[in-house]
Prior knowledge:
Helices cover 42% and strands 15% of the residues. By secondary structure, it is of the alpha/beta class. It has 2 domains: 164 residues, D-Maltodextrin-Binding Protein, domain 2, CATH 3.40.190.10; 92 residues, D-Maltodextrin-Binding Protein, domain 2 (3-Layer(aba) Sandwich).
Amino acid sequence: MNRRWPRPGPRVVVTLSLVLLAAACADEGATGGAQPQGSSLQVTLGTKDFPEQFLLGELYKQALAVKGYKVTLEKNIGSTEVIDKALTSREIDAYPEYLGVALSVAGRRETVTGSAQETYDLARRFYEGRGQAISEPTPFSNVDAVATTKFFAQQHGLRTLRDLRKLKRFTLGARPEFEARFQGLEGLQQVYGLTNAEFKSITIGAQYAALDAGDVQAANVFSTDGQLAGGDYAVLEDPEHLFGYQHVALVIHKDKLDALGGAEFMAVVNAVNRQLTANAIIALNRSVVVDEQDEAAVAARFLRENGLLGRE
């Protein structure tokens, strides 16, 4: 005997749909929470043109990939002057920026801020005015600095940037954009009176060899450079805080952030940032620059050690 089943009514159809929807949500929850779907998961990150930025790009890319985001990483785009144009022209969606540099270069603010919090608040408002958002800042601050060999500093009694005025003339080696920046040679002349400096353009990474060879007497360095861990160089103090507060935040277009899930996306970035203390970033930089390890492998190891790559 053939049994004819009754056709389900509207209430049954709706209930079945809800069951299927709940099952789908449960599957998503098992992988770490619901995420935006399809092309909205795709994001293009850029970095500047030096090893610490390559590391930051890898850290964000790998941590985001674990959560299902499809990240295209464009490394070595250039200085703030260059990469900010790539951001505003939508060639990239986001990139890690040093907040004091953001104000000075992108925001054209040629004044010294009084604190890290003030710097962050000003940068956040600046980017909000352009339709962009920023993550939480990193614990570490990577400021521009001026260094000499330890021997040269001892020989001439150099402890602060102001002490460079003791020298009749000296050659300052730095990346090209440093010459015209307020947080650069222009500011050194205005704030510290270093009109005795002769500028020499040097690519990032070559400044330590130039110091060792005596091609320059002083050089622009980054305070988190791995080379400084060896103790061969003296970093001159900046009592006027010309070089500001340079904690890192990820800058991203607000509409893109919304498409990526907003708080869910930023939570991944913030989780990475919270692990980046000064000691951590110096050790990471040293692994890449001094020990010549691959930045992707260094980033993966750091994320794994800090529980940010999930289960393997």
